[in-house]
Amino acid sequence: MSTLIQEVRQRGERLFERHGIPHTRLEHWKYTDIRRAIEPWLAEKADVSPGSGYEALPTDDVAFQGIDGLDAYRIRVLDGRVIEIPEALPEGVIVQPLARLLADDEARAARILNADEQASLFNGLVALNTARAQDGVVITVEAGIELARPILIQHMGHAQAAHICHALELGAQAHAMVIEHYETPEQTAGFTNVVSRVQLGSGSSLVHVRLQQESSARMHIGRLDVCQQRDSLLKSHVITLGAQTSRLDLVVNLNEAGASCELNGLYLTAGRQHADHHTVIEHRAPYCRSREEYRGILDGRSRAVFNGRVVVHEGAVGTDSEQRNANLLLSDRAEIDTKPELEIYNDDVRCAHGATVGQLDEAQLFYMKARGLDDSQARELLTFAFADEVLVRLDVSAVRRHIERLSFDKLPYAGDFDAMSLGLEESA
Amino acid sequence: MSVRPEELTAKQYDAGFVTDIEQETLPPGLNEDVIRHISAMKHEPAWLLEWRLEAFRHWQGMQEPHWAHVRYEPIDYQSISYYAAPKSRVNAPKSLDEVDPKLLETYEKLGIPLREQEMLAGVAVDAVFDSVSVATTFKEKLAEAGVIFCPISEAVQKHPDLVRKYLGSVVPQSDNFFAALNSAVFTDGSFVYVPKGVRCPMELSTYFRINASNTGQFERTLIIADEGAYVSYLEGCTAPMRDENQLHAAVVELIALDDAQIKYSTVQNWYPGDENGVGGIYNFVTKRGECRGARAKISWTQVETGSAITWKYPSCVLRGDDSVGEFYSVALTKMHQQADTGTKMIHLGKRTKSTIVSKGISAGHGQQSYRGLVRIGAHAHGARNHTQCDSLLIGDQCGAHTFPYVEVKNASAIVEHEATTSKIGEDQLFYCRARGVSEEDAVNMIVNGFCKDVFNELPMEFAVEANRLMEVSLEGAVG
Q1: Domain locations along chain A
Q2: Other C-beta atoms within 10 Å of B168: how many?
Q3: Residue ranges of chain B whose CB lies within 8 Å of a chain A CB
Q4: What are A106-131's pLDDT values in tens digits?
Q5: Which of A241, A271, A245, A272 lies closest to A406 in space, CA to CA?
Q6: For chain B, how many structural domains are there in total?
Q7: How far apart, in whole angstroms, are the C-alpha atoms of residue B268 and residue B264?
Q8: Domain range spanning residue B183?
Q9: A358 contacts in B (CB within 8 Å)?
Q10: What is the predicted ipTM?
Q11: Number of H helices and number of E strands within chain B?
């Protein structure tokens, strides 16, 4: 192994040793205690020697689900190793496994792997990712390239730890849609630790979908770091349905004037699931715009945490920011802890945020029942509508329909999605 | 836009003067002997001394908290003198005529002449000058109604059962670093007990003033409203100008039993430090009320314009079913002032309701944070909270921050949090200017409108004072 990569790995180990596993005495981990559950997955020392590229791992025992009716460039990741990349890509679009980059272009690989200790929400697990990530997908879309089809990254895993590091770079005026899809066979334990680092060139735009439906026995720790240049646009969709304990840190840096981001999120939890979403939007430049809406539906004895922080730095004049978090509790044993934060060091701003926790509106229920729906149907429809408010912003209908179906099936009602969506389509 | 923050920050502190009265002061430092000395000077019973010492032992094992969004030089707790009493205490005044004329003069400078107030306003004033209450009025009228309103040191002597029963029952000695310190060394404060079914016949009021150099002020206020009682309590403060930072770590405990109501209003205008951020009061206060009975109600209203650093979270523990908690706040930070303030609403009882309205105005280099917690317990069926917190920014050097914590463990709860941050709209200013209103008046109008929701909650006398305070504080904001 080259000394450069070795140094990066060692730095990662050192940082992990210093910061350790996040614990509940840290403000940003106040409500999420992962220490005991994570312990068994740390012991195993991952193989971090650079591979020759993507090699065929046995995939007989797992089945990638995919998204019906979606025509996408497909990448498959199994247990943290890239096992399939698309053959034919348009000119100006490069997809490489990180494992190959580690061998061929260590300077770039080192840059991708290296954790930034100063970044918002940095913690020991990010450092651990730097130390142990075996592979990942490195996507480059060159300036001016407009990708017509989305890139779909499918993740699948056995009962083991997977440290994955993705990178995505969009050149100036480039446009792309990337879907990160995480699934594991039901009942499979394991630990996913994934970091995605995104650079958006000036005038570029990215639609990023992150669909997490891992097994309810698994721990999922994710991080999405985005740096945006002038007039770039990020549209992010986060859908969290799976995992026993999941945590997502989403950090958006609006580094240059005119950049804007739209963050949409939906978390549906049941049983004893624990879903934690932390987002930070750093307004570092003038005239940037951010919109954020996260919605949650909680059932059983599940618990969800939302922490949305908007920071307006000195000099970020003309900032326009709005943030919403709405939660629906379906069970008396569910718990939501939400904290929308604003930190503003400038007077030329327009910022608003809000958080609500509540139940279905009695008047709306009554309206539905008066039109012949029984109580369960009325609740089902309204609960789904509550979730769908963030899903309708997904532009690609195949993706949207797929996620709507998954969300619907997760709700504690026995309704038929097709029957209901037919009705919706007819009325639309 | 011609709002100039530097002119706003140049506004001098009006109430800065030192009254020269002989002080009986302990040498600086804190140890068990100091606590024994304080206790002995106040002729306290043994249980209270033991209670203080227990708090002190807790405090010694505690770390000063630093999670608040404020910055300040480390405090040397051994350089503070923990007791200062005006000499005139030795011959306790029996009427206002016996009160040190200089003291009365001090109040007059602040525009609160005791005697006038006594006659005109019908307000009973328990004036706390540094640490010992020196003048208490309207005792008889209150006594007629059965209301006990006296310095807490007097209550310890005359009503030991009540004090022993309730002291520390809302804010325990080990609650936090500053509450533990206060429990160990508190020197005086007010005690109010309103008996069953009694509506307190007048607004109770205490004017606090920090006077002696280097004297941290450790007030302890305990207000108990028995079943069906009602009391409105007013607290207001100004402090003279000086350069050393002074620590103020008060504790206020409110207890409302079944159907009782307590309304606690504060206007705080302590010395905020000079335009370079030198000096000023450190105001680290623990205020908490507990609705212990069903249908009880506690309402906090505060106007915070002073202090170099404000760090306080008047809170409500809504234990009784159907109890109600309210928090209305206006906070102004200018020059180098920092404020980290907000509230906690802990919903434990069924159908408990709380309302939070917080208005923050930040100018100059001021830094202001709203930090609030709304917690709905697992058994608080049908609990309801609405939170509105807005910030107004004047100048590009100031900051306004919001840290609201919402924790809900019950599915039948409805919780809403809303916050906005913006500057004074240029279109609003233009509208006023086009109609011949001067820029300064326009800013005042807009700020007053912004604060109206809170000022409306203040008792009449305070609303006038608060309005004037905001105007004076914002003077020079435009030009």
Answers
A1: 3-359, 363-428
A2: 20
A3: 67, 376, 378, 391, 393-423
A4: 888 889 988 888 888 999 899 999 98
A5: A241
A6: 1
A7: 13
A8: 5-269+276-296+423-474
A9: 413-416
A10: 0.78
A11: 12, 24
